[in-house]
Design a protein that fits this description.
The complex is a heterodimer.
Chain A lengths: L4 H22 L18 E3 L7 E3 L8 E6 L4 H16 L4 E6 L3 H11 L5 E5 L3 H5 L7 E5 L5 E6 L4 H8 L12
Parallel strand pairs in A: 3-4, 4-5
Antiparallel strand pairs in A: 1-2, 3-6, 6-7
Chain B lengths: L1 H29 L2 H30 L6 H6 L6 H6 L5 H22 L5 H25 L23 H30 L5 H31 L10 H26 L3 H24 L12 H25 L14 H31 L9 H24 L8 H25 L5 H26 L6 H26 L1 E7 L4 E4 L2 E12 L3 E12 L2 E6 L2 E5 L6 E3 L1 E3 L4 E12 L2 E10 L2 H18 L2 H4 L8 H7 L1
Antiparallel strand pairs in B: 1-10, 2-3, 3-4, 4-5, 4-6, 6-7, 8-9, 9-10
Helix pairs in contact in B: 1-2, 1-6, 2-5, 2-6, 5-6, 5-7, 6-7, 6-11, 7-8, 7-10, 8-9, 8-17, 9-10, 9-12, 10-11, 12-13, 13-15, 14-15, 15-16, 16-17
The chains are: A alpha/beta, B alpha+beta.
Amino acid sequence: MKLQLKFLLPAVAFAALVGFFVVGLRQDPGEIRSPLIGKPAPAFSNESLGDAGWRVGSADFAGRAWLLNVWATWCAGCREEHELLLAIARENRVPMMGLNWRDDRNLALRWLEQLGNPYVSVAFDPDGRTAIDWGVYGAPETFLIGADGRVLQKRIGPLTREAWERDFVPLLPPPGGEDG
Amino acid sequence: MIPELGHFALILALLLAIAQSAFGLGGAARRHAGWMAAGRSAVVGQFVFTALAFAALTYAFVQKDFSVLYVATNSNSELPTFYRVAAVWGGHEGSLLLWALSLSGWSIAVTALSGSLDAPFRSRVVGILGLISIGFLLFMISTSNPFERLVPAAVDGNDLNPLLQDFALAVHPPLLYLGYVGFAVAFAFACATLIEGRLDATWARWTRPWTLAAWMFLTVGIALGSWWAYYELGWGGWWFWDPVENASFMPWLAGTALIHSLAVTEKRGLFKSWTLLLAVSAFSLSLLGTFLVRSGVLISVHAFATDPARGIFILGFLSAVIGGALLLYAWRAPALKSAAGFEITSRESFLLFNNALLVAALGLILLGTLYPLFMDALELGKISVGPPYFEVVFIVPMLPLLALLGVGMHAAWKRGLLKSKQRRLTAIAAASVASAIIVGAAVYGEVRPLTTIGFALALWVMGCSLLEVFQRLRGRQALPGAVLGMVIAHFGIGLATLGITGVQSFKIEKDVALGIGDATTIAGYDFRFAAMRDVRGPNYVGVEADVLVSRDGRAVATLKPQKRLYNSGGNPMTEAGIEVGAARDLFAALGEDLGQGRWSLRIQYKPLIRYIWLGALLIALGGGIAALDRRYRLRSEAREPAAAADAAR
């Protein structure tokens, strides 16, 4: 029986689809390049988590490199990465701001009290408006912003020691030179 | 001990599945009666051991055996018994076990009820179902063993995802899987036909009731999922075009096209190779859905098990099953020629339009679902395709489909449309358009083009369905199950269209911040936030509001939306307060606590939304009635085909 081309089409289309799936499977969702990378960090000024009368925002770190960590008490991955965030804070190479996302203020404050606070300051974002500007997919996410105000790196999902050393540390300003 | 027995039963089931496919396919090839009988016996054995494994896992959940990793991950000692049973399929491993059980259930049913088929064909069907079983059982045993022990045992479990602690979502997966997996039967029939190179169309007749049954389960499963999303997610939406929803909707569309094209193939011997391709596609899309959900290829809110190793296994399995079937198709299908011709207004051509439009919608939805993946793989950037795209690509083919549906139901095979029918249909069409305009203007005070089209099509489809019943009753004609089922299902389509048009056109949603005693008004209803209290459930604590709804000073209902925090932690869960009505739903969901006794509330007015799910249930009911048509069960008269049914029209 001879093969006819049009009857082979479904098989060919399916083979192409499988090709795409193979490529898709190889990609680690943690390594999605954010369209923000290389662009100026979106500006924001929110209530501080600890003090509703105080405003914190992107302008606080103008001229310096800083980290923005998006977290919430309902997020399991945030608990997972919390130890590492505390360790990074202890190293004191780069200041870290928290963005408390779609959360309850009291729960969030209790969380920091119980687990330790790695943040220099925490912006409160109960309705997720700031997070939308930053293109947040889900908590946790961590951004590194350079001294020039551009986003240098982004991590989706819990930060790991390996990812930190590989993707973030090389981009940090040299120790001691962060004022320059 | 019991979990080890369960694991062992699973391994035995795998061995029996291997025997089932080897003896089934080998016996058919060598025409060896003993082998073919052995293949059938293996089906029974496979079912028994899969069921034992399932029972063992259920037992572990009921007994709160937290030394089993899967039990500890998906349940908790405070979880009520009903949900502990439902938790069996609340995670990845158990879902697979349910899949396998469902597949072996279908296999045993086909084996038991297909005595009238000729032996080699039946044996091939058994063998192909066995191959699919092998894939799933092997996947489970090698990457996703539900019986894995946890050493040391957990003191208490993690709890079932609170979103899943709900009646509709407890029964949603089994129904959905019965539907997905049921398409495996049509797939096996199609492959057996291709292997044998059968030129007749009797296989279409054998396949029809099975496809209808699977399609019925899938319909109910999808409807339940939609209903659940409506009251549980707190947004009041009923369909989100989420990749996982699409994954269940695409096989449904393919299945819908399939049951229609099977009718043409059975009655007229046309569209043979097309119908085979659809049968392969419906099940392929079910497998694809599993792959998309389980592998994390597409990131979605549903992707609770994202594990590349599992993804690679499923992808390999998918390639083998679907690729194999499509190559078989490429090899054998060219020989299937359909010679008969038909008139442009005959039923055949309407069913051809039906298929073309359904497949167009299916293809565009598939494209939208996979588009982000394509873009990502080609490094063209990360994008997501949203509801606006899906709504357009779905509605555009659906409008002509609904318009043609009414006529198609009344068209005769082969010949053109009868004059007497033309007059009646014209009258129904005119009445539908007029009523749609009147309803829009009188009830909702507004006549919008798309709304009027939607209402008119809904009434048209319902009217044409009723006309069929009316004519048969008046002519004292028989109303066989297949026709009754068709009419009920089509009426359901009309009803669902009515609901969708109503809610999409006239829904009102309002997010407000209210303190105790404050009120707001939408659509003439006053919503008063009257009280707030603490509530406590078996495994959660929460708050419940009283929202008093009144209209012109008369009390209508008290809505009791809740916000729950489960003891196991995680996101606060929203339980909407809903007042159900024939004409509208009134909906209130609690948002955030704004402090000082103020809460954000989402208040909604949802006209006609009930008819979406009621319509879906009628569609499923119609499928069920058609599947049970006596004609499919008259085995001795299997050669008395279309003639009688044709005469009946």
